[in-house]
Amino acid sequence: MVATTEEVLELHGRVRECTACPLHLTRTQAVPGYGPVTARVMAVGEAPGENEDREGKPFVGAAGRLLTSLLESAGLDRRDIYITNIVKCRPPRNRDPEPLEVEACSHFLDEQIDLLQPDVILLLGRHALTRLLPGAGGISRLHGERVRHNDRVFVPLYHPAAALYNGGLKETLEADMRRVRGYLADAEAARARRAGGASASELRRVAASAGGDQMDLF
Ligand code: SF4
Is the CB of 104 inside a 6 Å radius of any atom of ligand 1? Predict the structure, then answer.
């Protein structure tokens, strides 16, 4: 069942008040996530940077603009996508998040995934890949691939920030992003089939309770 706006806002409120790891001491504000509760695609980055820390939204700087144009080039609208990070508060001087910080914050991301039930989860960079697909392999091998895990579809991608400084990576990211559209179409079709299957199962159950002869109808 799709989450309600109230449920997602309640979660965002808990993130903003969280003091569970030392990053709360240096943040301007926490950055819970941004996007519609109906999003079928979730994008997960590493951590807020300076711009995100100031504005309270994920991917609003140069990397964010590149992400928007990459999504557009693949026929995806950023306004349809829920975007968040592994850790919700900016690490000082944009250093990598510490393992204890990731551990302290991870339950928020788990809750976001449980609430939104996205069809496809884009893993932007190695930190997102390591957190959500531990042991699956490195980003250089898995980028652009579709990885199914725990009944979900994940697509590891290079982080847009890395592509800002490496033109070759940008071309790779563009090519990988173009594959996402097809993955999303497949995932939506699979979801529709599951929904149809559930309806048929329910009809069988109702028919069975109404009398054995009805079973032949399905
Ligand atoms: S990074 Fe996560 S766990 Fe740490 S204070 Fe921010 S919201 Fe809480």
Answer: yes
